[in-house]
Specification:
This protein is mainly alpha-helical. The chain is built from 25 helices and 5 strands. It folds into 2 domains: about 350 residues, no CATH class; about 140 residues, no CATH class.
Length: about 500
């Protein structure tokens, strides 16, 4: 590898890290906080299928401890760091497979700004960490660094067992590049040395415990092919928007020009078909397929190359066209995922407005009051307002300060009026930047009526009154009243 090709991935890594850092999220919700809380308590035997994520998070938290950051901020910074490392390894991996520097650079930029990869790199997410270790393992396997590849693959599986669906990549290249048997042995031994000492102590929780791998697998049903196809189309559209169509062109073109990569990408995708029929929505599917996003960005770039070669004869014009289209893709992705307001307001220092809003509301609540909200926001409310670090975050684990609206039967809402002094609600639905840009006012109102906590509460009991109470930059609290009561009580 020459000096220029060595410099490119390093420059891309530095640029991506700075971008992720400037536009990172400043708070966490839901599962991210549950994982952070488990790391803080060293409670690795809870939801142990992510035990590798816990260990990495704990190491990262120790490393950043001198900065006096909270664990949630540490986890966000960890995603920023690993997201940029993933960009470096994506460059190296695509370069090894396609042997074309221009395609490699463009593909890496497309991955950098693809919707899911960008979003997961600026928030506390398990799947960006998994993706990075998968990319690193694949690259080192192609370079015949068998020990490193096996160890990295083991970490990816410990971060999330879904990584095992990427094993087809290693099998294909073991035969395709005629690897020696001892390389397979080294890979397997390195995998076992890293995986087994961590897996064995936690294997019961890992497989059959709360959210255990086998327990989830047996509990979740298969979806029909029509829904699976819809989820797949939405996943591509949300991350690659109109450019997703070019993916098909690139895939076909790769068969004639990049046969080895074509079969590698095909086998890797085929290994993930099971997850396609298990994902209950496009959001879950994009998480499951994130390790494959480098293949999609490569196929789109190859498709662009094919189209431009047919339209323009001059090499300089094709180069300019490719650069222009990559820039257009990047601008569209940033607008959809971040929104104009956030783009013009990057920041290095943490923004604690969400946490302050939560605490301001909590100071007005008493032990006789209750909050109704969705799971993610309920966990965040407890985490950012609790005075006792041992307080559980989840209502299903004994927390009595909030109720999950998804687990609230209609009659229970009336029962709460008898048992609680005041009932409040925290809105969980907010249209993303993409929805605000692309949808009409009527469509946004329709979505609010379908998905908001306020609308869902009205559907549970049409006789209640819902009054606006407190509204911050990222929070919106309501007070729930019976129709004969219209006062705001002690909040006024």
């Amino acid at each position: 590898m020459n000096n220029r090709s060595t410099a490119y991935p390093i420059i891309l890594g530095i640029v991506s890290f700075l971008f992720f850092l400037l536009y990172r999220e400043h708070y966490c919700v839901g599962d991210s906080l549950i994982y952070a809380d488990n790391i803080l308590r060293l409670r690795f035997n809870d939801i142990s299928l992510h035990v590798g994520y816990y260990i990495l998070g704990y190491i990262f938290h120790l490393f950043l401890k001198p900065l006096t950051l909270n664990i949630d901020q540490t986890m966000i910074l960890m995603s920023c760091f690993f997201g940029s490392v993933g960009i470096i390894y994506a460059y190296l991996l695509i370069s090894n497979l396609l042997k074309n520097s221009r395609i490699t650079i463009c593909s890496t930029f497309l991955l950098f700004f693809s919707g899911a990869y960008l979003t997961y790199s600026i928030g506390a997410e398990v799947y960006i960490i998994q993706t990075v270790f998968m990319l690193a393992s694949m690259y080192h396997f192609l370079r015949r660094h068998s020990l490193a590849a096996g160890a990295l693959f083991a970490i990816a599986v410990l971060v999330t067992p879904l990584s095992i669906f990427g094993a087809g990549f290693f099998v294909y290249f073991f035969f395709k590049r005629r690897c020696r048997f001892r390389e397979f042995v080294f890979f397997t031994v390195a995998f076992g040395i890293v995986f087994l000492p961590i897996f064995i102590p936690f294997h019961e929780e890992f497989l059959w415990g709360r959210r255990g791998l086998l327990k989830i697998g047996m509990a979740s049903s298969y979806i029909h092919s029509g829904q699976a196809l819809k989820n797949l189309v939405l996943t591509f559209a949300k991350s690659f928007h109109a450019f997703a169509i070019i993916l098909i062109v690139g895939y076909i073109y790769m068969f004639s020009k990049y046969r080895e990569a074509f079969w590698a990408f095909t086998i890797l995708s085929a290994c993930h078909l099971y997850l396609l029929f298990k994902a209950q929505g496009s959001d879950a599917l994009e998480s499951f397929l994130l390790p494959l996003f480098f293949t999609y960005s490569a196929m789109i770039t190859v498709g662009l190359k094919c189209i431009l070669e047919q339209v323009f004869k001059k090499e300089s014009v094709r180069t300019l066209g490719t650069i222009s289209l990559v820039i257009v893709f990047s601008i569209i992705s940033i607008l959809i995922r971040l929104g104009p307001e956030k783009i013009i307001n990057p920041r290095i220092t943490p923004d604690s407005s969400f946490q302050k809003d939560m605490r301001a509301f909590d100071r007005k609540m008493t032990s006789q009051d209750i909050l109704i909200t969705a799971f993610s926001e309920g966990v965040a409310f407890t985490y950012y307002t609790r005075k006792d670090p041992s307080e559980e975050l989840e209502a299903t684990k004994g927390n009595t300060r909030w109720v999950d609206i998804d687990l609230l039967p209609p009659q229970s809402l009336r029962d709460l009026f008898d048992s609680r002094k005041h009932i409040y609600a925290l809105e969980s639905y907010s249209p993303g930047p993409g929805a605000q840009l692309l949808f009409s006012k009527e469509k946004l109102e329709e979505r609010f009526e379908n998905y908001s906590v306020k609308a869902r509460l009205k559907r549970l009991d049409s006789h209640i009154l819902i009054e606006n109470l407190m509204e911050g930059e990222s929070t919106h609290f309501y007070k729930i009243l019976l129709n004969q009561s219209k006062k705001l009580s002690n909040f006024q």
